[in-house]
Design brief:
The protein is of the alpha/beta class and 298 residues long. 29% of the residues lie in helices and 20% in strands. It is built from 7 helices and 10 strands. A 10-stranded mixed sheet has the order 3-4-2-1-5-6-7-9-8-10, with helices on both faces. Helix 3 packs across helix 4. The radius of gyration is 18 Å and the shape is globular. The N terminus is likely disordered.
């Protein structure tokens, strides 16, 4: 209930129910994805979780057929000998895939979505990841790999990552950073949904990263501000970015997250390269998320 109250108090608007596939690279039984699942569901969405059976952080866009378990799932969430894909007995919308994040996301889109939604999902979200995924780290992040896989399959996608936290079982007490990151991620998701379809241009995904949460800094969702950013630093001959905050060069996501004051980065990427999108594609996201975007202090 405390997760629900926090999320609802932060969300600026109500939106229609949306069919969402949720994945990550930290594993299906990690606390972050389970709390995020609850918040997205409590925000009136129809959500299916399809994530690796074990921690697959840093596996990028690796892909392989799922295989039966030769050891227990992470945190003993399923026993040795379990099938290659399985689900929680009390909630069949919580699914594991004994393979990589990309494989898990594809299973969610191609197998679970027709079962639960009667067709393809309307949106895919990945995370929120244990640890930030900034700049070149996007190339090896399994969370980013899952999001870009969805975008390649024509499903608009968002990857979320938080600086604070460590691998934690879903049964552990919920720490403040988990609720904060989950509420912020739900807010961005609901804002995008409220902007209307198509949610994103073809081949485009959004990369969201949060700074650290502590008892004295960034300890409430109200402390945070979202800033449109670039994944990578622009070269000397790089084309201009979308014009916002008085400039045609967006700050890098590293500089946003590193700025004092609880700033979260929102970068627009291309799924085929995991690099930055064009100014016109950035402009689409700027328009859709304008209600929650801010500028860095001058």
């Amino acid at each position: 209930m405390r997760s629900l109250l926090l999320a609802l108090s932060f969300l600026p608007l109500l939106t229609q129910s949306t069919n969402i596939v949720l994945s990550n690279d930290d594993g299906w039984a990690e606390i972050n994805i389970r709390v995020f699942y609850d918040m997205l569901t409590n925000a009136n969405n129809s959500v299916v979780l399809s994530a690796p059976a074990d921690n697959k952080s840093g596996t990028g866009s690796s892909d392989a057929p799922a295989t039966p378990l030769i050891k227990p799932c992470e945190f003993n969430s399923c026993p040795t000998g379990s099938p290659a894909q399985g689900f929680n007995a009390s909630n069949p919308r919580l699914n594991y895939v004994n393979s990589y994040p990309v494989t898990s996301m594809r299973y969610g889109i191609q197998t679970l979505s027709p079962k639960f939604f009667g067709g393809a999902p309307e949106l895919a979200v990945a995370g929120f990841n244990v640890g930030a995924n900034l700049a070149s780290t996007t190339l090896i992040s399994g969370t980013v790999g899952a999001a870009t896989e969805a975008a390649k399959e024509s499903i608009p996608a968002i990857a979320f990552s938080g600086t604070t936290g460590s691998q934690t079982a879903w049964t552990a007490p919920i720490q403040p950073y988990v609720n904060i990151y989950a509420a912020l991620s739900t807010n961005i998701t609901q804002t995008l949904i409220a902007s209307g379809k198509p949610f994103l241009p073809s081949n485009i995904w959004i990369n969201v990263n949060y700074p650290a949460v502590s008892g004295t800094s960034c300890s409430s969702t109200r402390d945070f501000k979202f800033v449109l950013s670039r994944i990578n630093a622009a070269g000397s001959n790089a084309a201009q970015d979308v014009r916002t905050c008085g400039t045609s060069r967006l700050p890098t996501e590293k500089s946003v997250v590193g700025t004092r004051g609880c700033f979260a980065s929102v970068s627009v990427g291309r799924a085929d390269t995991k690099g930055d999108a064009s100014a016109s594609e950035q402009a689409v996201v700027l328009g859709k998320l304008a209600a929650v975007l801010s500028c860095l202090p001058s």
